[in-house]
Amino acid sequence: MRFTVLVGMLAVWTIALESCSKPSEPARTTAPATGTVNLAATSANDPALPGMPPLLDPHNIYAADRSGNVSQTIARFPSRVYVPNTGSNSVDVIDPVSFKVVDHFSVGRQPQHITPSYDLEHLWVLNDLGDGITEIDPATARKGKTIWVKDPYNMYYTPDGKFAIVVAEREARLNFLNPADMKLVESVPVPCRGVDHMDFSANGRFLIASCEFGASLVKVDVATHRALGTLALEAGGMPQDVRSSPDGSLFYVADMMANGVYVIDPYAFTRVAFIPTGKGAHGISISRDARLMYVSNRGEGSVSVIDLETRKPVARWEIPGGGSPDMGGLSADGTTLWLSGRYNREVYAFDTKDGRLLARIKVGKGPHGLAVYPQPGRYSLGHNGVFR
Question: Which of 174, 155, 107, 162 is nearest to 134 (CA)?
Fold first, then answer.
């Protein structure tokens, strides 16, 4: 959920970073889809998106994310936790061994997430209200250049690496960029309000995104960039993080007002079940062995651990004295879950063996989509660390 209130956002729609240059010409814009979902457009038997690296295991899309699978290209990078502070317009860099902040630098206005590039060699700070993305060199953990990009609330990469997809939440668009220079190629309106998080089907053919202010999901064809339709959730809901099951047969959607996780059939695009977790269900992470799902309950200061085979909660980790766990990710070996404390100016580190809180580290105001880096995986699908 955006850190500032929705009403206050109306006055900042045209803000731009002074240090960034704007694109010289408009890109193509497509019209939003209307009507019902075209169920014939997607099938579990469809061939993979051309150019997408083949799955290592057809039953586990996260097979490349196992402990020890850090690419040799990035294995030399220092292990760090990069924390975007939305209220402080800054990034804190944490050493995960000492649990101490080892660097701090300013970025553009309201940084929301830190996104690894498709090739794993760069990190991007998404300065949402600053209309820019700031590079971090993970080889040195130092800040680099800033590039003008409109409304980068979140950012993903198509599974073939052909496009970066900027999730322009306040504009209700998915902007497809050339990842080489981050220039806009096509701007796609989506038929819902508050689009913010997404994941891709196992075959890479479509994505499903949450619409926070519309209590719904939207399904988009990756090749054609066309919206296939929407799926309404419960009235008053606020869906947040989205993640595919290991075998790709289900999607999980955390909803912070429903206080749990929706289970979605991504092909029929229907609701299958609902898993209660806790107040303010927000972020989702998958264990290194792809057997467990960690759900952060921001409204009550807890983490729910879900067995993915049974879809049942098996553990609940409480933050002593309370907190506001939001987005995060696992350490490369999977032994530590790192989460931002959105309203407490802190970052939490949990031992995944027993849920013990290892550290709570003071950072800037409004920490959000932190990135733990480097990570196992062959390529990045974006967000703050979704790898395949």
Answer: 107
